């Protein structure tokens, strides 16, 4: 387990495994980890699947949570019990298939799996 000094800004996060992961991903990002591949969110201090529905996670420029055809944000539905994550445009009803949205779904699925494993540890 990481020391309090190593967790720095996450020392107040109650879930110690989450705090350690946040800190580790911060360091990895400084060495080149794509911020969109993180399983945690430094802004919300949560597993990314828990906060991905926030408006802060809509990035029009990259296309994350964005339907380019309809030019609008796309909601993300996370069912933690079933382990499912879905995205569909409220206008056209389709999954906004783009590299950015596929990346987001992968990160959310991995985040959910890691968070589940941490709970069962």
UniProtKB/TrEMBL annotation:
This is SBP-type domain-containing protein. It comes from the Bacteria. InterPro entries: SBP_dom. Residues 43-121 form the SBP-type domain. The lineage of its organism: Bacteria, Bacillati, Actinomycetota, Actinomycetes, Pseudonocardiales. One of its GO terms (molecular function) is DNA binding.
């Amino acid at each position: 387990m990481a020391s309090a000094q190593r967790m720095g800004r996450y020392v107040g996060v109650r879930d110690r495994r989450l705090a350690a992961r946040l800190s580790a991903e911060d360091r990895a990002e400084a060495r080149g980890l794509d911020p969109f591949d993180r399983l945690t969110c430094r802004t919300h201090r949560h597993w990314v699947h828990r906060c991905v529905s926030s408006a802060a996670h809509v990035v029009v420029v990259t296309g994350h949570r964005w339907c380019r055809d309809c030019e609008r944000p796309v909601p993300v539905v996370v069912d933690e019990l079933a382990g499912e994550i879905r995205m569909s445009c409220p206008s056209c009803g389709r999954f906004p298939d783009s590299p950015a949205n596929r990346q987001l779904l992968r990160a959310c699925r991995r985040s959910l799996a890691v968070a589940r494993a941490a709970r069962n540890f």
